[in-house]
Amino acid sequence: MKTMDLKIEGMSCGHCVMAVKKELGKLTGVTVESVEVGKARVQFDELAVSPDRLAKAVEEAGYRVVS
Which of 18, 22, 35, 38 is buried most, with the most CB atoms less than 10 Å from its CB? Predict the structure, then answer.
């Protein structure tokens, strides 16, 4: 398992936090450690999911991962 911190643009409230947490939590091989406004920390199995797929899940929640 690898740990990754995601910087997320567009989040502003608790609803945003829950939306991101829900989308990341749907991914196989991902453990969501924490989500706060503007950031998330996840552990993921590199064989099951890529960093690009993590970013896509955040986009599906309506936000954007920035580097």
Answer: 35
